[in-house]
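Field log, afternoon session.

UNIT: design team B
ACTIVITY: writing a sequence onto a fixed backbone
BACKBONE:
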C-alpha cells in the first residue's frame, strides 16, 4: 500500500493493518508525488508475476482478483487485461461495458479501458511496465497503449472494478486536462497516428477546454493548404460527431460504454 504523503491518520491506519496481516507492506512518500509516482512505487515494491493497482477512492469488486488470475492463466498469450467496471456517481451506479477485444490501433484513438485497473504479466514485456509521470492525466490510458504495442490486451466481460466519479476534488476535474493529455499523447505517439487521428485528438482537446471548434478552423486551413489535410479534418469531424452522439445516447440509456464500442467499430472499418 502506497501512502502518497498523507497528512491525516492514514499512516496510523496502515500500521494497524500491517499488524493484523503480514502480507501488507507499506511504502511512504514524505511529500505527495501524484498517482504515477505512487503507483510506480507500489509496482517496484511488488514481487509477483502479475501486478495491478487500485486507486484509494475506488475498489476491486468481489472475486476480481480470482477472476483476473484465472483469466490470465487461461490466456497465456495475453500480456495485460482489464475488465468492465461499475461507475459510481453519487447514489447512481451504472456499468461500463467497453469492447472486449481491441488493439493498439484502437487505443491510439480512444481509451476503451477507461479505468486504472489493469493486470499486467511482467514476463510478457521486455521492460517492466511503468506509468509515465510526464502525463498529468490519462497515464493509465497511455500505459495500456504501451502494453498493447508489445503484447495482446483484453478486457474481461464482467464488472470487477468500482470507479468513483466525482465532480470535483480529483485530478480529472481540471477543465484544461483533456487538451494537455491529448497534446502529450500526440507528442509521444503521434508517429504511429494517422492525420485524421491527430486532428481528432486536437479537436477533442480544444472543445473540452474552451468550447470552440478546432475542426472549423482546421478544415478552412486545410482547403487552402492541400486536399489531404482537408480529408483528415473532415474525417476527424465526422468521427467526433459520431462519438458525441453515441456518448449522449449512452448516457440516456444508462450505457456509458456505448460510445467506446461504437468508436471501436468505426476505427476497425
Amino acid at each position: 500500500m502506497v501512502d502518497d504523503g498523507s497528512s491525516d491518520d492514514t499512516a496510523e491506519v496502515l500500521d494497524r493493518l500491517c499488524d493484523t496481516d503480514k502480507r501488507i507492506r507499506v511504502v511512504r512518500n514524505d511529500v505527495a508525488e501524484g498517482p504515477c509516482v505512487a503507483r510506480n512505487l507500489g509496482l517496484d515494491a511488488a514481487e509477483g508475476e502479475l501486478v495491478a493497482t487500485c486507486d484509494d477512492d475506488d475498489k476491486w469488486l468481489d472475486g476480481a482478483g480470482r477472476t483476473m488470475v484465472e483469466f490470465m492463466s487461461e490466456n497465456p498469450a495475453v500480456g495485460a487485461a482489464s475488465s468492465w467496471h461499475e461507475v459510481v456517481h453519487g447514489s447512481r451506479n451504472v456499468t461500463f461495458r467497453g469492447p472486449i477485444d481491441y488493439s493498439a490501433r484502437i487505443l491510439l484513438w480512444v481509451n476503451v479501458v477507461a479505468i486504472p485497473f489493469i493486470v499486467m504479466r511482467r514476463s510478457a514485456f521486455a521492460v517492466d511496465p511503468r506509468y509515465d509521470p510526464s502525463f498529468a492525466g490519462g497515464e493509465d490510458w497511455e500505459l495500456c497503449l504501451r502494453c498493447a504495442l508489445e503484447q495482446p490486451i483484453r478486457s474481461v466481460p464482467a464488472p470487477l472494478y468500482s470507479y468513483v466519479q466525482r465532480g470535483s476534488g480529483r485530478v480529472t476535474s481540471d477543465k484544461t486536462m483533456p487538451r494537455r493529455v491529448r497534446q502529450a499523447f500526440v507528442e509521444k505517439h503521434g508517429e504511429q497516428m494517422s492525420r485524421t487521428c491527430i486532428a481528432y485528438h486536437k479537436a477533442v482537446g480544444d472543445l473540452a477546454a474552451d468550447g470552440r471548434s478546432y475542426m472549423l478552423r482546421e478544415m478552412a486551413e486545410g482547403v487552402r493548404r492541400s486536399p489531404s489535410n482537408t480529408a483528415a479534418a473532415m474525417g476527424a469531424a465526422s468521427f467526433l460527431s459520431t462519438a458525441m452522439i453515441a456518448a449522449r445516447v449512452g448516457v440516456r440509456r444508462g450505457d456509458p460504454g456505448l460510445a467506446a464500442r461504437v468508436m471501436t467499430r468505426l476505427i476497425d472499418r
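LOG NOTE: The first helix runs from residue 10 to 20.
NEXT ACTIVITY: expression trials, pending approval
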